[in-house]
Request: fold
Amino acid sequence: MAKKKGVIAQSLQNSIKDAGAVSVMDGAGTNFVSPFAIAMQATPLQIGLLTSIANLLAPWFQIFANKLMRVRSRKFIVSRAVLFHALLWIPLALIPFLFKDLSLRTWSVVFLFALIAIVGGFASPAWNSWIGDLVKKEERGRYFSRRNKIAGAVVLISSLFAAWFLNLFNGEKNNLSGEEVLIGFSILFFIAFLARLISRYYLNRQYEPKFKYDPESYFSLGSFMKRLRNSNLGRFVLYSALLRAAVTISGPFFAVYMLRELNFSYPAYISMTVASSLGSIAILSIWGRLVDRFGTVKVIIISGIMLSFIPLLWLVSRNWYYLLLVNAFGGAAWGGFGLSGGNFIFDVVPREKRSFAFAYYNIFIGAGIFIGASIGGLIATHSSLKILGSVYLFLFTISGLARLFFTLIFVFGLREERKVEDKPIVEIAGTELMGGFVDDVFVFVNNALPRREAIEEALKVNSIKLKEKRKILRRRILKFNRKFSDKKEKSFFTKI
Reply:
């Protein structure tokens, strides 16, 4: 038993290393696919399709992945899918060298990114089932908050490096085009390929608990849809799908707005991603504690309301410093929503049915993303309606109001599955969330600043080391002194 616990603990450590490698892929690769398409003069509709097609198609292949679990282990499915996922970054990197026609280039990006999403998502149900068996129920909040925090930090660092690297190719022009910068993108996508291979290495070093497929655990998409409005999971899936639709009305176009209308450089653009990552990292451990203490539903409510205001805050100012704060707030909100949403499904769905539940959940999420991004793309391309002179700000307004509408309708109908502490949501958001953040800041500052005891201890250690060095020096001088026969010289060295 002790040996098995040690193997599981090591596997969870390797899972964190896997997350770090995937984060390099996301920071240097995924985060720069939209700017890559924009640099090749992609239209707003193509930018919308870049997100929507990938998310629409990928979940349907996950159903086949579930059926594959009948004859293959979860580890086998994940390992093979990740290998092909890594290899697909290579043709994406070669697009600037294979095609010269801009239209052919941009549509190739849309097609290849859809393939990347499909193959990457293929592993999702098996991985969710696998990791769910490794992490204890009562430790999920803390473990996944730690894992996500480390992943977020790596995304931050790799994104900063990628932005700085691209700027070397872009020079002083900041015109987001030209063959030179496309070479920079190609190198970044090759780095993403290598990072995904490293991720696969750590996945293969993880223990897989025994899993036997139970035919009775199967439930069809049709039966799942019939229970959407009445089951706890169904209500959450409906809410998540509609929320994603509202989010992606504006989501794909933040990059276009920053790069084309605000004329941000690559470092300025990626600083928004960095701010989002910092916001998430700063508060993830608090979200984890809240999930473990008060349950997933209350965290979903708080974070869902928070993320509804993100696009509306973009209307207030175009100031770079202000937008950094908005993105940090957004990162904090999405960190809480992602953590609580994933744990909600783990709590609601029995172990043997999780892979199907995640697959069907992703189908609805993909449909929501496709609908939202398509609506956003059509409005951005054909609408003459603008707010403050920008059609993108009009999209942000629609998105924010729709997010808030769906959140208020659905989240208060969700039911907590675990037995947790009871506390009003307002108090959790105030004393626990904000108070916890302030406490963490004070702890960080207190640990970062040198204290009197630490300084005295350091001086004491240095004094001891100095005395030891003096003794060593004296012994060496005496040894050297013996080589001299002249008594005057000997007495001279002895006095030193």
Observations:
- Residues 492-496 have pLDDT under 50 and may be disordered.
- Residues 198 and 430 are 41 Å apart (CA to CA).
- Residues 2-210+228-448 form a domain with the Growth Hormone; Chain: A; fold (CATH 1.20.1250.20).
